[in-house]
Amino acid sequence: MHNTIRKTVLATAAAVLCLTASLPAYAEETSHTDVAVMKDEAAGKDGTTSASVGKDVTVVENGSPDRDTEHGSAQDTAGTRTSHKDRTSRGSEEEYVDAGPGARKKEEPPVSTETSLGRFTITGYCGCDKCSGGHGLTYSGTVPTPNHTISADLDQFPLGTRLKIDGTVYTVEDKGSSVKGNILDIFYGSHEEALAKGTYTAEVFLMED
């Protein structure tokens, strides 16, 4: 009986010793495992945080150039619009006759149509006593001007009528006792020039706006 109890006590003590010997190794292994897991988790968290921060930094860094680019594009667009506006403004200014208050844009000359009236007899006169009797003005009250004033039959061509002869446009401003029907009398600057031109026939065009 005593031997049995003694064997049981010894077996129990041996088991306890074995268990005690194995517990530190298990505890150390568990501790190392837990530490490794914690390190991995910490590394994972740190890595995630770093990655996230890296992404944030990247977004911020990439975002700034984008905003700068957009701002630069906006400035370029504004500059282009300004340049275009300046060119338009300069073009508009060139259309003005004079700068400053009351400036007016140049008006395009009206396009005239011409109608052939056939051939007329063309004579010439000047402002001398022999040609005009010493009158310094035309019948319409204007000062006769070469390459502009012409005398005509007012029943056929009222004052102000524009007639084109040999490429020059004349305005009917005068009349003459011998200027009737299809006869037109052109004003010249001198009697000699009027004589040099003499009498001839030419096709006459009526000019109308």
From TrEMBL:
Keywords: Signal. Residues 1-27 form the signal peptide. CDD domains: 3D_containing_proteins. InterPro entries: 3D_dom, 3D_YorM, RlpA-like_sf. Residues 149-203 form the 3D domain. It comes from the Bacteria. Residues 64-73, 83-93 have a biased composition (Basic and acidic residues). Residues 44-115 are annotated as: Disordered. The keyword Ion transport does not apply. This is 3D domain-containing protein.
